[in-house]
Design goal:
The structure holds 2 protein chains of 2 kinds.
Chain A lengths: L6 H16 L1 E2 L4 H5 L10 H7 L4 E2 L16 H7 L5 H12 L4 H9 L2 H5 L5 H9 L5 H13 L13 H7 L7 H11 L4 H10 L16 H7 L15 H8 L6
Parallel strand pairs in A: 1-2
Helix pairs in contact in A: 5-6, 6-9, 8-9, 9-11, 9-12
Chain B lengths: L6 H15 L3 E2 L4 H5 L9 H7 L4 E2 L16 H7 L5 H12 L4 H9 L2 H5 L5 H9 L5 H13 L13 H7 L7 H11 L4 H9 L17 H7 L15 H8 L6
Parallel strand pairs in B: 1-2
The chains are: A mainly alpha, B mainly alpha.
């Protein structure tokens, strides 16, 4: 590429190069485009195929990503799709040491899976939705609630507003109104303390010297996560397509 | 950028440009967006902040995207987030001209909103999940089912396997087993005909000469889509966070 190319020419050249190398066409989903501030129309496969008439759009497994088993388990998603999960593992171990019941250890282990593997914004709501068919309703509720409760201190259990939020979001950051509304609702809920316990064991100050293996929680997962026999993504549950999107995030349709 | 820059200098320059566009906020991509690019890096907020002292993580509106009203409607999402919707508008008009009842016209208008506005892969399932709280069960069901039905011809409705699927997916493309199962279940469902109508009016061969305005369907939306008073995203519905993600796709948490 040289300096005389415009930005859009450069983008076209990159797309062409990718199509040549991959022999298939990747069309970005709208939400991926929006996250780059790109309001333009999507790539038109018909145009891309003029340059490479044999190229197909991606409908099967993405050869750039690690292959997944036919009937993937939660552990497989941790291994093949999620980012480093030490924060979750440290939080779950902290909960074990704090004597929390198993289902709450599971809640701590899963509370940020949307950050680790899916969508960051509103990650508590997304994470709860992802696991809802497979865990106790209290676990789902607590994962959703931690999104909100982490912004509000509770002295009765020694939970303070996280220092990392002051640094990350600014001294003057105020949660959005929908978060404030949800906080009021959740504060009075019978499972409030379960949501709160996730925030208590949420290790904001990640310790780089503590190493925890996922295998430590294999039995907790086995007893508390209803792994579908057909594999996550293929059990026809209301959220199966969400897991399939992680298996094949660039699938055309 | 010039050719003398190293790859890491280019990356830094891009990062600086991004921060400028975000008005000195740090925006990071969600794992799913990165996976779609086969990018396995995991952004580290704390490290990014050390590299850019004083900058905060993006927790509010993305300044690169059009501003949305406080209580956004479906039409606002069409205008301010979705890709050009001419395919949907042409399909909906086609259904209207054929004398379809209003709820079928609405289903045709919304059937691909996940392609236009969210995630392409399994778009029928995503689209159904987004609109479920706001439309009749039949409309939700039909949008979900069109994902599977469009792969299977039905001569009694005059629906043939789309030509462009042969070109795009290959002559030998066979839908996955979960789609095959969904097809069989849908085929025997009482609302089969409604979902099939989405396929019949799905204009695969988009006509560049026909221009349809969204306003043509304002009344049909008004009568058949229960726009929440608080705005889409702020009504505490099970899909509210999905609309919020569309509003703020790069929100940090």
């Amino acid at each position: 590429m040289n300096d005389l190319m415009t930005l859009s020419q450069k983008a076209d050249a990159l797309e062409e190069k990718m199509a040549r190398e991959l022999d298939y066409i990747v069309v970005k989903s709208r939400i991926y485009q929006l996250a780059e501030g790109d309001m333009g129309p999507p790539l038109n496969p018909a145009e891309a195929r003029k340059k490479n008439p044999d190229a197909k759009v991606l409908m099967g497994d993405d050869p750039r990503l690690p292959a997944m088993p036919e009937k993937p388990t939660l552990m497989d998603f941790f291994k093949y799709r999620f980012g480093p999960s030490m924060h979750l593992l440290q939080s779950a171990r902290h909960a074990v040491k704090g004597g929390l019941p198993e289902k709450m250890v599971l809640a701590c282990l899963l509370h940020d899976i949307s950050t680790a593997g899916f969508i960051r914004g509103d990650h508590g709501y997304w994470g709860a939705q992802l696991v809802e068919p497979y865990v106790d309703p209290e676990v789902t509720w607590a994962i959703r609630a931690h999104q909100v409760l982490r912004f509000y201190p509770d002295e009765s259990v020694g939970y303070e507003y996280p220092q990392s939020y002051i640094t990350g979001f600014g001294e003057d950051y105020r949660p959005d109104p929908y978060i404030q509304d949800d906080y009021k609702r959740m504060r009075n809920h019978k499972w409030y303390m379960s949501g709160r316990m996730i925030t208590v064991h949420d290790i904001y100050s990640f310790d780089p010297n503590v190493h925890v293996e996922l295998e430590e929680f294999e039995d907790v997962i086995g007893r508390n996560f209803n792994q579908p026999e057909e594999g996550l993504g293929f059990d026809n549950s209301p959220v199966a397509h969400m897991w399939r999107a992680m298996i094949r995030p660039a699938k055309y349709l | 950028m010039n050719d003398l820059m190293t790859a890491s200098q280019k990356a830094d320059a891009l990062e600086d440009k991004l921060m400028e566009d975000l008005q000195n906020a740090i925006g990071v991509k969600s794992r799913l967006y990165l996976l779609a690019e086969a990018d396995f890096t995991m952004p580290n907020g704390a490290r990014l902040q050390q590299e850019h002292p004083g900058a905060k993580m993006l927790m509010s509106d993305d300044p690169r995207l059009p501003k949305m009203p406080a209580k956004p409607t479906l039409i606002d999402f069409f205008r301010l987030r979705f890709a050009p919707p001419m395919h949907l508008l042409q399909s909906a008009r086609h259904a209207k001209v054929a004398g379809m009842p209003e709820h079928v016209v609405l289903a045709c208008l919304l059937h691909d909103i996940a392609v236009l506005g969210f995630i392409r892969s399994d778009h029928g399932y995503w689209g159904a999940q987004m609109v479920e709280p706001y439309v009749t069960e039949e409309v939700t069901w039909a949008i979900r089912a069109h994902q599977a039905l469009r792969f299977y011809p039905d001569e009694s409705f005059g629906y043939a396997y789309p030509d462009n699927y042969k070109a795009y997916f290959g002559e030998d493309y066979v839908p996955e087993p979960h789609i095959e199962r969904a097809y069989k279940a849908a085929r025997a469902h009482k609302w089969y005909g409604t979902a099939r109508m989405i396929c019949v009016h799905d204009l695969y061969s988009f006509d560049p000469e026909v221009h349809v305005e969204l306003e043509e369907f304002t009344d049909i939306i008004g009568r058949n889509f229960r726009q929440p008073e608080e705005g889409l995203g702020f009504d505490d519905s099970p899909s509210a966070h999905m609309w919020r993600t569309l509003r703020q796709p790069t929100k940090y948490l």
